[in-house]
Write a structure and sequence with these properties.
The protein is α+β, with helices and mostly antiparallel strands. It has two helices and five strands; from the N terminus they run ααβββββ. It has a five-stranded antiparallel beta sheet with strand order 4-3-2-1-5. One of its GO terms (biological process) is protein transport.
Length: 110
Amino acid sequence: MLVTPAYAQAAGAGGQDFLLSLLPFVLIFAIMYFLIIRPQRQRMKQHQELVANLRRGDTIVTSGGLIGKVAKVVDDGEIQVELSEGVKVRIVRSMVQEVRSKSEPAKEGA
């Protein structure tokens, strides 16, 4: 015979070796999901909620570092911000990084 008994026994254990070699990749993906992907999704959801709730009178900080007060909500994608008295700019809503102080809701009779 040309095949030794030790070589013949090793050929049957290939399926189990494949699963054991795949296990580290699964563990690395699980760690990456819980440490990187999941927290990033939560931050994105919080930022979208913050941007959706912008109102006139809110003091905001843009991603460029400008601080201003929301003068007007133009549409779903833009807002008009007053940087100083008489200086108004239109910016994209997604560029709002932080809301420093929230304004009170406008009264219906006013």
